[in-house]
Each structure stands twice: as C-alpha cells, then as structure tokens.
Amino acid sequence: MGNAAKATRQNRTLTVDFHDETTYFALLDNTKAFVEFVLAFILSIGFQLNHKSTCHGGSSLTRHSHYVRIRLGGLTIWRIQCTRCKAVFTVLPHFVLRYRQMRPEVARDALLATHGGLSLEWCATICHISPMALYRVICAFGHHSLVWVLTRCGLRLPAYILADEKHSRCLTTKVYLPTLVSGRVLWHLGYSDSKNAAAFTQSYGVFQQTALEQEPSYRVKGALTDGFDSTVSSLRTLFPGARLGFCLRHALNKLPSKLVGVSASVRQGLRAKFHALLHRCRQRTSLRVVAMGQCLRHLANRIDTTVGEAHGERVRHWFEDKKAGWYAVLADPQMPAMSTVLDQAHNAIDRKLFAMKGFHHPGGSQAAFLTGLAHLYNLIPYQRRALHAGKCGVAVEGGRLPTADWMLNLQILTSGGFR
Ligand SMILES: [Zn+2]
Q1: Residues 48, 52, 57, 58: is their CA dihedral positive or negative?
Q2: Can you give the pTM of this predicted structure?
Q3: What protein residues have CB closer than 5 angstroms to ion ligand 1?
Q4: What is the mean pLDDT of the chain?
Q5: Cβ contacts of residue 378 below 8 Å, gap of 6+?
Q6: Listed residue (23, 315, 359, 12) closest to 168, CA to CA
Q7: Nearest 5°: phi and psi at 47?
C-alpha cells in the first residue's frame, strides 16, 4: 500500500502525428522521407530529442531497425538513431498507444467519460472495453510524473503552492491524498495510508525530488495550507525557507465553531466582522501585518463584550495559535490567500474516486492511477467560464501545448523521447 509510482525506465519513445494512417504506411518504405517527417514534426511542436547526456543533440538521425507489433495487426514500428550518441528512439505513430492494444480514439472517449465522473465500469461499457483495460491505460499515463509533463509544457516550477490532503478510503481503511496545486494545475497527487507528518513528508518529497532533478536551484517561496499540523510540519521539513500561510477562508469558516452555545445570528454577525477585517487588511498596501494584529485584538475584545469573556479568551487563544500563518499570507503580496482552487481540484478528483470504488484494494496501483487522473485534470479542456472556454488547466496557467488535441498532447507529453 502507498506504493510510489514506479520509476520510468529510460524510454525514448516519440509519439509522432502522421495526420492519417495512410501517410504513415506510405512513409514506411522511404527512409529519407520518414526521418524528415519525424524531424519536421519535432520542430513543429517545439520539442527536442532526449539524447544521451554526452551528446550535444542535433538532428543527425538515421533509421535504425524496425519490429512488427503482432497485437496491432502486424503494424511495423521503426526505430531511429542519433548518429552521434547512438541513442535509439522508437517512433510511435499517433494511432497507437505505447504497449496497449487499445486505440487512442477509444481511449480518448473512455478517458473523457472518466474525467466527467462516469464510473470505470460505465466508461468501459460505452466504449466496449474492459474496466480493467481502462484502469491500466490511466495507470500507464500515470507512470509519467506530473512535474515532467508540466515543465515540458513550459510551465515554471511553482514558487507558491497550495497544499492539502484529500481524505478517502481504500476498502474500509482511511487513506489520504497529499495534493499540491498552483492555479489550475495539479503538481502532485500522492497516496498515503497514514496522516502523520512523516507520511506526508514522504509524499510531498516525491514532488520535491522530481522538481530538483528538473531544476537544482528550485525553491518554494510560499505555501498555503489549512493549518493541519502534519501538513505544516511536512512542508517545513521539505521547504525550510518557504513562508507557510494558513488559508483565510478556512479561518473564516472556523470562527463560528469557536463560539459554541452562542446563537446562530450572533455567530454569523461576528463571522461577518471577521470577514470584513480580513478583507480590509488584504486591501491595505502597507503595514498589513501590523494592521491585522490590531484588528484581531479589537475583535477579541468585542467578543468579550458581546458574548462573554470565556468566548473572548477561547478566540484569543485560537488567534494566538493561527496568526503567524495569517500574517504569512499578508506579508507577501504574491502569497495565495485562499485554497479555493485546491478545493475545486479535490472536488473534481472526488467524483472519480467515488466512481472507482470497486478498484480500491490495498495492492492496487494507487499512485499511478491518481497521477493518471491528475494528468487528465491538467490536460483536458474545460469550459466553465467564457474567459477560459476550451482551454485546459495547463493553457490557463500559460503553458504551451504541442497540439490543439488534448489526447494527442497526452500521448506526446508522456513520450520519453522528448525533452
Ligand atoms: Zn545524440
């Protein structure tokens, strides 16, 4: 349980869009044209080949060998080789999924239905495949790290992150999904059967390690959480220099629970006061932290006088406990203040977790499956607001996508031969 996504073998697969199958078959007999087509495609998507580390790259490629995929009706697959470093790349035409018999257009519909919240069983039924085959396709994409795929789209590693854990179940056991979000993009969706700091450190550490492999100088400047101890201490361990803030909306929603026994209308009134206070402090351009300290004292005094000193004292203790996290939010204008986008990501994933209940078992490939779902979340276009209609999360965050087709993007971005 809690098995990490398996490390991907150094695969140098290139998914290449040949537009239609007849083009591919026509090029099979023409070495020069084949290599030229592949090079032109790589140029068009703006990627580079993943040569061996000793090689400066370049595009002196030659056809190397071919093999026949029996399961795909005897399809010929070519390999090409760099003439300098001898790295060998497998050219996979767009109408084939790596190691899968399932056609991409079938996978496209099934994945879209999965992303839409339909159960694996129903997705499989409408696409005439087995639920297990669909589960395996999602896992196959999930073996590729989110960090790799997102940085290939030109997204910078996030300087500010939102972190929280989704609670879920594996059969009857409680499990936790440590999640990192920046804007509309999921950077990490882990899996843990424990909610202690060590378990979260391990999960968030997977993100950190991959990020550092991409960019050794990577530093997180700020992280926002809801203030849960294990989350906070795992982030403090992993990102010692980062500002750790607490979500202001969580704070707002928590206040009424500190006023037990007080009438609902009075609690709502005080919550509204707290809301106005946080808003005013965020509006300020200077001395935000000082202003907030003053406002919190005033609010606690007001609670003393309106509902009694016992309540005032309780709220004051709570302020004392949390204010460092709120100050951290106010101290840096770039810090996210609320975890709304993370909650939205969790809600989207929740439907899929519910829909795949039958697939939860302790020996499952949870890490790969969840990462696969996260890829879908990042790459499938969604149309909620006119502003972002037709864009996927990656595009909304300013990433560049190789093509206008999300399924083809998923195939290309999880090809190990591109850099
Ligand atoms: Zn090379």
Answers
A1: negative
A2: 0.91
A3: 51, 55, 82, 84-85
A4: 89
A5: 146, 149, 150, 184, 185, 186, 392, 393, 394
A6: 359
A7: -100, 170
